[in-house]
Amino acid sequence: MTKCCVRVPATSANLGPGFDCLGVALGLYHELRVEEGEGEGVEIEAFGDGAEVVPRDESNRIYQGMACVFARTRYRPGRLYLQSRNEIPLARGLGSSAAAYAAGLAAGAVLSGEELDRGEIIELGVAAEGHPDNIVPAVLGGFTVTAAGEAGLAYTRLELPVGLRVVVAVLDFELSTAAARKVLPQEVSFSQAVANQARVGLLVAALATGRLDLLRTAMEDGLHQPSRAKLVPGMDEVMRAALDAGALGAALSGAGPTMLACVEDEGDAVGKAMKLAWQKKGIAAESRILQVDGVGLQVERNER
Fold first, then answer.
1. Where does residue 280 fall: left (phi above 0), alpha (psi -120 to 50 degrees), or beta otherwise?
2. pLDDT for residue 91
3. Which residue from 128, 120, 130 is spatially nearest to 101, judged by alpha carbons?
4. Which of 9, 155, 201, 226 has the highest CB neighbour number within 10 Å of its CB?
5. 1: pLDDT strictly greater than 70
């Protein structure tokens, strides 16, 4: 029988104005070990963030990813033992769901003997998750841009400037993507759309050319963050604190409530400033300084 190890990074989507199209892979990981033995059924062991609430049955997000591949390949697995070690905070805007599903897709491909390339894993992940701005960087690593057109989903990956780091302030409460989408406006003005379109272009150009001085303007948003501010008390104050402490730019990470700031130095001052701003609002937060993950999905296959 087969066993495999899979490693998938956390992701942050939007990065301010790039709603549902920009994403970056970050140095927090979901690691999965899978062994297949005789019999049938699934046994799941979970460690790390969210371990106490992770389903231990077939409703588990990892298993659902594996089952998707099994159905596609018509593979009937033996008894599965899944060991999950997760560093990615759940329901905090850091792509925990996308990472879990991508890990399951990759593991399912290994066990069934299917040679799925990264493009096929992205296709399956987007079909199930509906969030290419998380799935694409989780699989490819780095900074990614996605767009849907008549020919389907198109995406590309950019290398970020050396030395760019990300500071995240992770709050002690969860915010589901579904809840965060419910508060979004059904319509925006033409001027708002144009302004955000301009900042998306500026953000991509700034990161591609190393013009990090442009990030402060480029990461401003007028589409989703104003509406979501009511769900994340103190959001504007935390962004201001990050910028005043020297951040290059700041934004809500994905649907939130985690806040994100880009830095070129060690980032300690920015992390402390963000944490203090939350404390003034009576909200506990943990700040982390993360590298950008440039690898994405990693898979190791072993035969017993």
1. alpha
2. 87
3. 128
4. 9
5. no
Q: Tell me the residue type at 83.
A: Q
With 0-12 / 13-18 / 19 or more C-beta atoms within 10 angstroms meaning exposed / middle / buried, residue 298 is middle
> Is the separation of the CB atoms in 132 and 122 below 8 Å?
yes
- Closest CA relative to residue 140, chosen from 160, 161, 162, 156: 156
Task: Encode pLDDT of 12-70 as tens digits.
Answer: 999 999 999 999 999 999 999 999 988 888 999 999 999 999 999 989 999 999 999 99
CB 254 within 8 A of CB 223: no
The reply to whether omega before 9 is within 30° of 0 (cis) is: no
User: In order of start, what are the domains of the chain with their CATH numbers?
Assistant: 2-158+293-303 (3.30.230.10), 165-291 (3.30.70.890)
What is the DSSP code string of 17-69?
TEEEEEEEEEEEEEEEEEEEESSS-EEEEEEETTTTTS--STTSHHHHHHHHH
- What does the block give as tokens for 198? 């301009």
Band of pLDDT at residue 179, cut at 50, 70 and 90: confident
